[in-house]
Amino acid sequence: MAFSDSGKTLVxxxxxxxxxYGKSIGPSGSAxxxxxxxxxxxxxxxxLPDSRLELAKSLGFDCLRMVVDVGALMSSATEPQLDALVExxxxxxxxxxxxGLRVIxxxxxxxxGTHPVPGFADVDLIDGPDGPRFQRxxxxxxxxxxAVRDHFSAAEVAVELFNEPPPPESFRIRRAWNxxxxxxxxxxxxxxxxxxxIVAGTGFAxxxxxxxxxxxxxxxxxxxxxxxxxTGFAIHPYESATFTHQGFPGFFSHVRxxxxxxxxxxxxxxxxxxxxxxxxxxxxxxxxxxxxxxxxFVYQGSHSYSFDKYSTEFGNAELxxxxxxxxxxxxxxxxxxxxxxxxxxxxxxxxxxGCSGKASAVSAFNFIRAVRDISDAxxxxxxxxxxxxxxxxxxxxxxPPYEFDPDIIHALRLGR
Length: 416
Hints:
The protein is an alpha/beta fold. The protein is built from 14 helices and ten strands. The protein has an eight-stranded parallel β-sheet. A two-stranded antiparallel sheet has the order 2-3. The longest helix is centred in the N-terminal third of the chain and has 20 residues, at 79-98. The protein is globular. The two termini are 27 Å apart.
């Protein structure tokens, strides 16, 4: 593969700033992108000055995954406006490459409801090869691909076509995802004949259907024979989100201090008790909602998000390796190189300055170290830690001197 190293698993860093969450004006649900949307956290040189890029390189990171809010590109009213935004991205790629880092350009639609600008969510863009949104997506990504082709080598830049395809249920009244991603891939392959293109399966780039409960989910339900040997197959092993997303706003917000590994029984009991108490004390929940949450997480072990399922399917390095083996066995069956398997996003919502009630720093270290080691042993193409900054997944300070968390760097076996 053009974007891999036959001798090692690359270690990449997921970065949302400044291209990954386009700035907008107006209330959520009716907002519009600003004329200069790619200023998430400031300009590119403000958020990622050369010194910060050089620090990432010196610590041992091989590449940056450059998240691009594709909705900002798609909303461009004119071709000159689109060209100007693509040029900003091109300049950003150039700066990263000059620092010695490779770049994955991540075409990133957001899950529905997570960005204030409507009309460009993941489910909006899957109206199929004949659909206007899907065709607009292809048009803007072809523009971006042309800039990559004209300015960067295949060893320097790869393009990830669709961050996290939604669950299989989203396709029940739409063309199957395999048909859509294969068509999309062919359109971009014409423009980028030599660069690595990265594709993912449904269920938010899942491995398979274990977490979603949908047998057709995950990378193992893609059809590798429809792609070429210069295609990467993305996985996002948040396995399971009960651990990795504990304390994150939303469904897992009441989970606290869940340990990794899960073999610490007293810690598991405390986590369950804390969950029950946190749910019961939440005034925003109805009595029925509290009952369903406690029942599902604590007492119904068959649910993929339950504490028991976490313990028995995901909760230590050996179980994570067993999960990864599902993908490597699929790759071997289809005569793929293991380097074509690319973990383009994983991480842990963890306790740190300004963050509490998440995974402990020790558990975050253990999980990240486990993913690092089993990926290396399995000869994956790369792993990508989420994320640089922005929330409690962050692994670096957002202001000078931009220090990285030394424990996370050590967990990734960098900085030596």
